[in-house]
Hints:
Order of helices and strands: HHHH
Number of strands: 0
Helix content: over 70%
Low-confidence stretches: none
Structural class: mainly alpha
Shape: globular
Amino acid sequence: MQPQSIDWRGGITLGAVAGICLGVIALVVNEVSGIIALENGFASNLVAFTVGGAIFGLVASGFLSLLKERLPFRSIYLKTVIVATGLWATLEAGGIVLSAVQPDRYHFQAAQLFQGLVLSLVLGGLLGLFWKIRNRQA
């Protein structure tokens, strides 16, 4: 597969939409669970969460566009969940390293780890759903 043959525009659009949906879901889940103490109001956090979700979705969809043909699974859902969870695990590993290097500044919290894992699985499911819908329309 050549980089020229990858549909980057379609992947970016799907990633952004899935990430925005994830941002809204993450904010609602956090408002209900209260796991992360947020400093600003709902409207201000909505902007931050949707932008952050869109960026996470873009990166995950970009990796999916690159790795889609190389992953040994047939199901697009499994591929998207593996990519999104792998990206989350990489970021979480960086957080754990930061926590070990500067424990007074970065604190490991198992509840946040679990919430992040669940939300990465949700992003993978959303991406899989959007990719499946797009493939049916093509």
